[in-house]
């Protein structure tokens, strides 16, 4: 044992045992058991975090080079142990646990930064500034007494302690969200409050936003927090209630899926472009035209154009020779409408322009099989009534493509 803080009164010294349980008398053990029960009640939601942190602290005890700065102990108020609960002076305690003066918002920021890969993207997902997220991470590290992230100019990565604490942090965030859901359900059945919704940027702009006026009139007690992003977000980590997504959904864990509607991809050009160039009648003839591609910023590749082969099988052009490419679907469509070339787009984006004659569909008989848009919600025991009401509102209001199919 090592003396860590000398009491101003002569002869009174407080000790900590960094790695092993100290031997005390029967009265001391009884007192410790009572305090341990009190600690458990106060810190129930942080149990998993404390276990993970305790493991990290044991490693630090074995390797002094990884321990925190020695002056940290000197700053701790006399008579307060590391988890923030007062203790008797002169009582030897097992001090393997470190400070747990952390909050759920701090843990949520930590989890979001790891999921997003950057502080700026995490802030955007959480509706916070990058500076606020960075400050929350710093305070979390100070409160936990360990470094969680390696920071450099161009990248973030987890430290060894960060890797060991990420799982408990996620569990704590999910436990807090479950508590909030249960509390809201107990208060009003979950019919009022905030619903956090996410979808791709273009989809939110062209499909979701036009429905919001009617929804607000019907349900004035429900507030929608819409996160438009092309990133696939972990629903629990991002605190998302409902996601509207198409394409592969294997990257969205712990969700329940419900198909909303289906749509084809269409190859289109503006009349002004077709006035200058011959209309392509087969897919290979596209090679003789100016093609506008959508570049997936995650992969860095231009997205293939789905279509049928001459034998009727599903296919796709992944060798497009594009003269122009964007990482934004609306920009691709805008360039096509301006006569810059031929583009491929989902029908929900093209429908209005096809109906008013601003765009012309090409190679309609080469259309590929329809893709689907799904509503994804978290797999949880209690589904708030406000989320059920939003899904019930959206279901019958899928875009109608009957005249374009």
Features:
20% strand, five-stranded mixed β-sheet, Arc Repressor Mutant, subunit A, 3 domains, alpha/beta
Topology:
Layout: E1 2-6, E2 13-17, H1 26-42, H2 47-62, H3 71-75, E3 93-94, H4 104-116, H5 119-126, H6 130-144, E4 149-151, E5 156-158, H7 160-188, E6 193-199, H8 201-208, H9 212-218, E7 222-228, H10 235-238, E8 242-246, E9 255-263, E10 265-269, H11 271-276, E11 291-294, E12 305-308, E13 314-317, E14 324-326, H12 329-337, E15 342-346, H13 347-356, E16 360-362, E17 371-378, H14 385-394
Parallel strand pairs: 2-3, 6-7, 6-8, 11-14, 11-15
Antiparallel strand pairs: 1-2, 4-5, 8-17, 9-17, 10-15, 10-16, 12-13
The protein's oligomeric status is single chain
Main sheet makeup:
5 strands, mixed
CA(first)-CA(last) distance: 79 Å
Widest sheet: strand order? 7-6-8-17-9
Cα gyration radius (Å) = 29 Å
CATH names the topology of the largest domain as: Arc Repressor Mutant, subunit A
For the secondary structure, the number of strands is 17
Estimated structural class: alpha/beta
Helix content: 25-40%
| Rounded mean pLDDT score | 76
Unreliable runs: 1-27, 55-99
Strand residues, percent: 15-25%
- The name of the CATH superfamily of the largest domain reads Winged helix-like DNA-binding domain superfamily/Winged helix DNA-binding domain
């Amino acid at each position: 044992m090592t003396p860590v803080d000398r009491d101003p009164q002569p002869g009174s010294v407080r000790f900590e045992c960094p790695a092993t349980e100290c031997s005390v008398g029967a009265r001391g053990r009884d007192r410790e058991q009572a305090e341990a029960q009190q600690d458990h009640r106060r810190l129930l939601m942080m149990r998993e975090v404390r276990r993970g942190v305790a493991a990290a602290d044991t490693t630090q005890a074995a390797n002094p080079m990884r321990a925190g700065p020695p002056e940290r102990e000197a700053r701790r108020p006399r008579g307060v142990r590391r988890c923030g609960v007062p203790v008797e002076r002169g009582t030897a305690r097992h001090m393997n646990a470190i400070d747990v003066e952390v909050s759920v918002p701090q843990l949520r920021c930590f989890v979001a930064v790891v999921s997003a890969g950057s502080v700026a993207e995490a802030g955007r997902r959480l509706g916070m500034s990058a500076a606020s997220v960075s400050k929350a991470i710093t305070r979390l590290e100070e409160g936990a007494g360990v470094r969680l992230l390696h920071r450099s100019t161009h990248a973030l990565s987890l430290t060894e302690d960060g890797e060991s604490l990420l799982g408990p942090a996620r569990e704590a965030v999910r436990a807090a969200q479950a508590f909030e859901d249960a509390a809201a359900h107990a208060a009003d059945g979950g019919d009022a409050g905030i619903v956090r919704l996410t979808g791709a940027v273009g989809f939110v702009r062209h499909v979701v936003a036009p429905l919001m006026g009617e929804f607000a009139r019907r349900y004035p007690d429900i507030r929608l927090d819409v996160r438009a992003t092309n990133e696939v977000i972990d629903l629990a980590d991002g605190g998302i209630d409902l996601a509207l997504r198409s394409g592969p959904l294997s990257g969205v864990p712990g969700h329940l899926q419900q198909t909303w509607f289906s749509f084809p991809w269409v190859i289109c050009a503006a009349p002004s472009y077709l006035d200058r160039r011959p209309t392509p009648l087969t897919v290979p003839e596209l090679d003789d035209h100016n093609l506008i591609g959508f570049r997936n910023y995650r992969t860095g590749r231009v997205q293939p154009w789905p279509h049928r082969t001459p034998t009727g099988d599903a296919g796709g052009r992944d060798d497009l020779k594009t003269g122009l490419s964007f990482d934004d679907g609306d920009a691709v469509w805008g360039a096509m409408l301006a006569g810059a070339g031929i583009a491929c787009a989902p029908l929900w984006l093209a429908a209005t322009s096809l109906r008013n004659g601003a765009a012309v569909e090409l190679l309609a008989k080469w259309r590929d099989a329809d893709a689907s848009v799904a509503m994804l919600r978290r797999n949880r025991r209690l589904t708030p009534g406000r989320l059920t009401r939003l899904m019930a509102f959206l279901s019958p209001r899928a875009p109608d493509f009957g005249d374009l199919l």
